[in-house]
């Protein structure tokens, strides 16, 4: 399964091990499938929050407030992502990436399935939204721990000149998850239209998660542990308190890396967080479009997100992570400005076009993220660093983006306020990117901790 490594391969020493090509293919496949399952579960909730949860769990609050409460449950889970990231980072840096990925997969799948079995407010009263919130919190903990382990398994197995491409493999699992979630919801909108969708149709995509748990578990169980962690374990160099070391030495880097992701995540949650779905289909809103075509438009646009995510990961190996991100921020700002004018036409083809244009910037500021993050942090605290930066960035960016967008439109009466908000988040992401040096190709193994500990932040010698 593994073979001796040369001194030039990825920066490891001859005493270490490296993945064979077969190992690498297995890791790529497993990370794509695993993250697809995780984010299908996460996004199916967000889709339902925009389409049905306000009516069946929060209806007594009144239409406007019920929708805000429904979107708040989407954002609430983000507040618990850092807990998942702390736990996964601690145990991932001490016991390995693989075991954490197995636990997060099961936790996410069980939580999602149970949402599909929940009674409504009409059946059990206030206990219904309380249980819904509890299960969403479990989803947030799982999502907080999932991403760091998946990207490190991919990047740490990769040749150093292909980290961007390999790191894009778990990233494309996110748009695939959105594609599946939107597709499942659209199919159920056809099978169970109108009131039937509110009564039982929305539950089927949640219950389908049971099947995905078994598929993801089987595939991930066959993957070898990250060679970087294997070498750390063989040398008995696991950090005893990785989180303490991370914040003591690298706190500024964590914050800057978080803002890099925040700029992307705010725009991404216009579709993945269910905002566009609700805005376009709400009978009381300005458009009142049919549910099914809008869901298919989101599903179609997610294919574009997948393509641009993969493309940008590959490009970042050639032109650098930083340059790829700068291109992405410009594209994301353009996408934010064009999104609502196209959606507001009420034409499904133009709704799709607006979402597709947005995915150019989303992909280019998401594909290189795995490699960028992995190259920022020293090996001994890398799982903690990438997981916690990602979780904090999700809170600053996507956690309450649908809620903020809803409140902005209700208070200003125009979607231009949302566009300005998204452009502002893209500018923050650009500034954070410009503060970081490009560390493409830096050795990732434990022999190079001193080199890795030199701060990638301009103007700082150490983190």
TrEMBL record:
InterPro entries, alphabetized: MFS, MFS_dom, MFS_trans_sf, Sugar_transporter_CS
Domain Major facilitator superfamily (MFS) profile: 27-441
Keywords, alphabetical: Cell membrane, Membrane, Transmembrane, Transmembrane helix, Transport
Superkingdom, natural source: Bacteria
CDD domains on file: MFS_ShiA_like
Annotated signal sequence range: none
Transmembrane feature ranges: 64-87, 99-124, 130-155, 176-194, 200-219, 251-272, 292-311, 323-342, 348-367, 388-409, 415-436
Listed PROSITE patterns: MFS, SUGAR_TRANSPORT_1
Location relative to the cell: Cell membrane
One Pfam family this sequence matches: MFS_1
Membrane topology value: Multi-pass membrane protein
UniProt cross-references to SUPFAM superfamilies, sorted A to Z: MFS general substrate transporter (SSF103473)
PANTHER family, sorted: SHIKIMATE TRANSPORTER
Protein name: MFS transporter
Species for this entry: Microbacterium mcarthurae
């Amino acid at each position: 399964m593994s073979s001796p490594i040369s001194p030039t391969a990825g920066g490891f020493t001859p005493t270490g091990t490296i993945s064979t090509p077969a190992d690498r293919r297995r890791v790529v496949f497993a990370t794509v499938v695993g993250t697809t399952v995780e984010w299908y579960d996460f996004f199916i909730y967000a889709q339902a929050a925009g389409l049905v949860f306000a009516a069946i769990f929060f209806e007594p609050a009144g239409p406007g407030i019920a929708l805000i409460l429904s979107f708040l449950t989407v954002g609430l889970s983000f507040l618990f992502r850092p807990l998942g990231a702390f736990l996964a980072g601690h145990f991932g840096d001490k016991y390995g990436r693989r075991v954490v990925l197995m636990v997060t997969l099961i936790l996410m799948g069980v939580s999602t399935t149970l949402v599909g079995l929940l009674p409504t407010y009409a059946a059990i009263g206030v206990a219904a939204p309380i249980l819904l919130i509890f299960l969403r919190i479990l989803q947030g903990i799982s999502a907080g721990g999932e991403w760091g382990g998946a990207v490190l398994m991919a990047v740490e197995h990769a040749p150093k000149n292909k980290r961007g491409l390999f790191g894009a493999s778990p990233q494309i699992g996110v748009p695939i998850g959105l594609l599946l979630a939107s597709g499942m919801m659209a199919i159920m909108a056809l099978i169970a239209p109108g009131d039937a969708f509110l009564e039982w149709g929305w539950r089927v995509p949640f219950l389908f998660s049971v099947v995905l748990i078994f598929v993801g578990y089987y595939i991930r169980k066959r993957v070898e542990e990250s060679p970087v962690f294997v070498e750390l374990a063989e040398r008995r160099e696991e950090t005893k308190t990785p989180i303490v070391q991370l914040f003591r030495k690298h706190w500024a880097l964590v914050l800057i890396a978080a803002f890099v992701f925040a700029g992307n995540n705010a725009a991404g949650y216009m579709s993945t967080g269910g905002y566009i779905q609700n805005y376009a289909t709400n009978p009381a809103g300005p458009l009142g479009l049919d549910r099914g075509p809008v869901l298919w438009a989101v599903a179609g646009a997610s294919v574009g997100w997948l393509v641009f995510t993969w493309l940008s990961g590959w490009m970042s190996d050639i032109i650098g992570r930083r340059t790829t991100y700068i291109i992405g921020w410009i594209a994301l700002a353009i996408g934010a400005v064009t999104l609502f004018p196209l959606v507001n036409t009420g034409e499904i083809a133009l709704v799709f076009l607006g979402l597709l244009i947005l995915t150019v910037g989303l992909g280019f500021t998401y594909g290189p993220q795995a490699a960028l993050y992995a190259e920022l942090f020293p090996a001994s605290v890398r799982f903690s660093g990438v997981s916690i930066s990602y979780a904090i960035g999700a809170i600053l960016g996507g956690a309450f983006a649908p809620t903020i967008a809803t409140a902005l439109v209700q208070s200003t009466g125009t979607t231009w306020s949302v566009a300005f908000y998204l452009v502002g988040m893209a500018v923050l992401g650009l500034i954070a990117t410009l503060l970081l040096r490009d560390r493409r190709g830096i050795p990732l193994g434990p022999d190079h901790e001193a080199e890795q500990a030199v701060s990638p932040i301009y103007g700082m010698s150490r983190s």
